[in-house]
Amino acid sequence: MYADQSAKVKIKKYQELSPDAKANLSFTKIDLSNLLEQIMNEFEPIAQENLLTVRTIRDQTPIYGYIDTEKMVCAIDNLLMNALKFSMKPGEITVRLSAEEQHIYFAVENMGKPISDEQEKLLFERFYKADLSRNEHHGSPGAGMGLSIAKNIVDLHGG
């Protein structure tokens, strides 16, 4: 029952953030380094409970950008939870944040079960699951929308 409710919430969120939808973004100037630090302070204990260490690589100086904070936190959360769910355990998740000229780069890296190049190309597609058998080992099967939602949010921010 919970998985069905979670899927419905994700579908609604996807519809709200779809490139076809008129998303109402509220851009404010924010220090992304500070935001990432706050997110990681909440995420690291969860990762540790799952036998994962987290390595954060970022500039020590502020990185300012105009973002919709609520939506960007949602995107980052989706990326982190996907890495948590599909990382080999024990293992490591690496999070990177950097800025170069007018661009801000954010990446989440983890080591999981290998997937093909073709599967990798489809990871950010709505409802796509690279390997259904992966879900047997990770509890909740998910809706296959988290990475798609994250991609849509990034696209709405010009990324």
TrEMBL record:
InterPro entries: BphY/WalK/GraS-like, HATPase_C_sf, HATPase_dom, His_kinase_dom, Sig_transdc_His_kin-like_C
Top-rank lineage group of the source organism: Bacteria
EC number: 2.7.13.3
Primary location group: membrane
Enzyme class (EC, first level): transferase
Compartments where located: Membrane
Domain Histidine kinase positions: 1-159
Catalytic activity: ATP + protein L-histidine = ADP + protein N-phospho-L-histidine
Gene Ontology MF term list: kinase activity
Keywords from the named record: ATP-binding, Kinase, Nucleotide-binding, Phosphoprotein, Transferase, Two-component regulatory system
Protein name as annotated: histidine kinase
Biological classification of the source: Bacteria, Bacillati, Bacillota, Bacilli, Bacillales
